[in-house]
């Protein structure tokens, strides 16, 4: 049974002063005797999450609401395993799939068909599993003959439709999504929403 538990989870993200990493600024500082660009050289720490306590059980459907910068996407990245919390404990039981960045692993020089294999492999599917679902993915993407064209020739909507189609091949116990509705035109959005509803039933 799927289960997620977060206990006192916090995440601090260090932001390094760009001047500390700039070769140009280092050269100018050396030439001028350090009179220019003298500033704080260490990292600034942003506390992205603090004392988060949550528990989700099998069958729960949860939505996060908040203003920009509230930490919604950061929390989803912690749940997806992208970020490791700097404090507290995260316990997740169940297969997790993430639609946080549906374009992850897409190679613009490869064809749509080749990208299906690349992206699906990143999601943990075997070559046999991909072959079994290849036609279903291509049909769902509505790319037609463009499936054998390089992705760099795709419009942004076509690119997202391909990425989304591959991402929803797996049927995970835990599905994490972040602003996934921007996946193409209105008709494709409707179809994508219907598929998501089937997955989370």
Structure description:
The protein has six helices and five strands. With 201 residues, it is of the alpha+beta class. It has two domains: 3-94, Rossmann fold (3-Layer(aba) Sandwich), CATH 3.40.50; 99-199, Rossmann fold, CATH 3.40.50.300. It has a three-stranded antiparallel sheet, with helices on one face. It is globular, with a radius of gyration of 21 Å. Residues 34-39 have low confidence and may be disordered.
Provide a concise account of the structure shown.
This protein is an alpha+beta fold and 201 residues long.
**Number of beta strands:** 5
Unreliable spans are: 34-39
* Main sheet characteristics: 3 strands, antiparallel
Question: Tell me, what is the CATH class of the largest domain?
Answer: Alpha Beta
Q: Please state the structural category.
A: alpha+beta
Question: How much is the radius of gyration in Å?
Answer: 21 Å
- Proportion of residues in β-strands: 15-25%
Helical stretch tally: 6
CATH homology-level superfamily of the largest domain: P-loop containing nucleotide triphosphate hydrolases
What is the CATH architecture annotation of the largest domain? Answer: 3-Layer(aba) Sandwich
Note the run of SSEs as H and E: EHEHEEHHHEH
Q: Give the strand order of the largest sheet, numbering strands 1, 2, ... along the chain.
A: 2-1-3
Shape: globular
How many distinct domains?
2
User: What is the share of helical residues?
Assistant: 25-40%
CATH topology-level fold name of the largest domain = Rossmann fold
What separation lies between the terminal Cα atoms? 15 Å
Mean pLDDT: 81
